[in-house]
């Protein structure tokens, strides 16, 4: 314990050196860092920042949902919680398997903008995960109509929801066969039949 004051002094010196090393040179010398050292460019406060939604979408495409979620939170701080941001947050949570959080965020996005097609599609996927096939079908039908049938993923999701509803009715009458819903990719599902 007699070394504690020495250790404390050493740690304070190290922290002070780290803080001073992190300060821009303009703080220390009174000059502009970018002008004084062209090899160490500073931050350009006049430059436009990159949209957090764009960064998040690219990270989702790169299968990095945790990093995408952080980018979407940054976008929420910049843009507010609009339908686009809420839908993006819901999509990232869905990809991370956080079904309850995804559903809440997607429903909130639809409260903001009830005809927002990406939120409708993703809510339908959440409902499929929860085996709420009837509601999923209605949500996919609305998304399909608003999208005018242009998006293949929405069309396929609607087809799967309809097939799953019919198979559920069939299974209630004939309990001979069961279907498993398997995720094959983002927004892509496949029904696999197994004997009961």
Give a summary of the structure in a few sentences:
By secondary structure, this protein is mainly alpha-helical.
Give an overview of the whole structure:
The chain has 196 residues and is mainly α. The protein is built from ten helices and two strands, in the order H-H-H-H-H-H-H-H-H-H-E-E. A two-stranded antiparallel ribbon has the order 1-2. Strand 1 and strand 2 form a beta hairpin. Helix 4 runs antiparallel to helix 5, helix 8 runs antiparallel to helix 9 and helix 9 packs antiparallel against helix 10. The longest helix has 22 residues. It is elongated.
The low-confidence runs, each spanning 5 or more residues with pLDDT under 50, are: 26-34, 172-177
**Strands, total number:** 2
In which order are the strands of the major sheet placed? 1-2
SSE sequence, one letter per element: HHHHHHHHHHEE
Distance between the termini: 69 Å
Radius of gyration: 26 Å
Shape category: elongated
Instruction: Classify the helix fraction into a percent range.
Output: 55-70%
Give me the oligomer status: single chain
Query: What's the rounded overall pLDDT mean?
Result: 77
Main sheet overview: 2 strands, antiparallel
SS-based class: mainly alpha
């Amino acid at each position: 314990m007699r070394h504690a004051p020495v250790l404390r002094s050493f740690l304070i010196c190290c922290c002070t050196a780290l803080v001073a090393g992190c300060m821009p040179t303009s703080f220390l010398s009174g000059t502009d860092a970018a002008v004084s050292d062209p090899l160490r460019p500073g931050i350009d406060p006049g430059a436009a920042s990159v949209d957090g939604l764009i960064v998040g979408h690219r990270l989702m495409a790169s299968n990095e949902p945790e990093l995408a979620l952080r980018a979407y939170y940054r976008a929420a701080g910049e843009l507010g919680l609009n339908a686009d941001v809420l839908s993006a947050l819901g999509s990232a949570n869905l990809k991370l398997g956080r079904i309850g959080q995804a559903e809440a965020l997607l429903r909130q996005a639809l409260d903001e903008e009830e005809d927002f097609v990406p939120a409708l599609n993703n809510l339908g996927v959440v409902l499929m995960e929860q085996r709420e096939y009837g509601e999923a079908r209605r949500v996919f039908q609305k998304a399909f109509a608003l999208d005018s049938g242009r998006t293949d993923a929405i069309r396929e999701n609607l087809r799967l929801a309809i097939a799953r509803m019919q198979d559920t009715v069939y299974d209630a009458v004939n309990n001979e066969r069961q279907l498993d819903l398997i995720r094959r990719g983002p927004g892509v599902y496949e029904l696999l039949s197994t004997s009961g």
